[in-house]
Design a protein that fits this description.
Blueprint lengths: L2 H7 L5 H8 L1 H18 L1 H4 L31 H37 L1 H15 L3 H12 L4 H27 L2 H8 L4 H37 L11 H7 L1 H4 L5 H27 L6
């Protein structure tokens, strides 16, 4: 039998076999992340009720046809608040990761390109910032500038920028030392062009992996700040706020609000971390 015949007789891998090679866990995690983003975008059309509508006559009601997951202590629909809560619970981490990715990558790129004293000074700056826990800095920022969305997000963005820069900087230093960089410089390419068009794209997989994993951790921090009353404020629908507000219903034997919101945070964080780990395996960055 010829090679052509063998090739013709070989069946193409099925969709199921390809999905199995990727891993069902990763597929489910990616589907959950995608669903969360879609829920946050289309919340006004998906939610069955107004998440801010108060009904004092129907507080802490169990699940029913009208309120599938029941109501909170103010008679607000828990399902609707969970759906709308996906917005603030995802937007905060998204802003943190976007800012930290841009700032951290730029910081690492400048340090790696100039090297020497510039790299040493910038490395010490990163060590100084990294020595302060990001959540503690965010709490301090919320205390000084007031609770809300932007003060904690700005503080966490600085902390996450330092974390990303510490990881990306060594990779950029290695890339900076490769022969092709010297060849490009001999051809007259500027440092900015070499860094942006060559070094940065080659390190982009590492940055992508760190952004995916960091998103999950940022969700935890944002939810923790909301739980402490230093982030998004009630009655705005937010998962951290719901966990905190639901504590008053625990004594009445109705833990649903806190449990559902906490489960939403946990499932989201695990899913984004699994996606990040899958990306790391895909790019061969498991040991990073």
């Amino acid at each position: 039998m010829s090679v052509v015949q063998l090739a013709a007789g070989r069946k193409a891998p099925s969709l199921i076999s390809r999905a199995s090679s990727i891993g069902w866990v990763s597929v489910i995690a990616f589907a959950i992340c995608s669903a969360l983003i879609l829920v946050a975008i289309f919340a006004p059309w998906i939610a069955p009720a107004d998440p801010l509508a108060i009904n004092p006559a129907d507080p802490i009601a169990p699940g029913s046809a009208e309120h599938l997951l029941g109501t909170d202590q103010s008679g607000r629909d828990i399902l609707s608040r969970l759906i709308f809560g996906a917005r603030s619970s995802l937007v905060g981490p998204a802003v943190i990761i976007a800012i930290s990715t841009i700032v951290g990558s730029t910081f690492a790129m400048v340090a790696a390109w100039y090297g020497g004293a510039v790299d040493a000074i910038m490395a010490r700056i990163l060590d100084l910032i990294f020595s302060f826990p990001g959540l503690l800095v965010a709490i301090a920022a919320a205390t000084v500038f007031g609770a809300g969305f932007w003060a904690p997000v700005a503080a966490l963005s600085i902390a996450y920028s330092a974390s990303l820069a510490r990881i990306v900087r060594p990779a950029m230093l290695r890339e900076r030392s490769l022969p092709y960089v010297s060849a490009l410089r001999l051809q007259g390419a500027t440092g900015w062009r070499v860094s942006v068009h060559h070094i940065l794209p080659n390190v982009a997989p590492l940055i992508l992996v760190q952004a995916a994993v960091g998103f999950g951790y940022a969700m935890i921090d944002v939810a923790a700040l909301a739980f402490l009353g230093l982030g998004v404020q009630a009655p705005t629908p937010d998962w951290g706020v719901m966990v905190s507000s639901g504590q008053s219903s625990l004594a009445a034997g109705a833990p649903e609000q806190s449990l559902y919101a906490a489960a939403a945070v946990a499932i989201s964080v695990i899913s984004f971390n699994l996606v990040g780990e899958r990306l790391a395996r895909h790019f061969g960055l498991e040991d990073v």
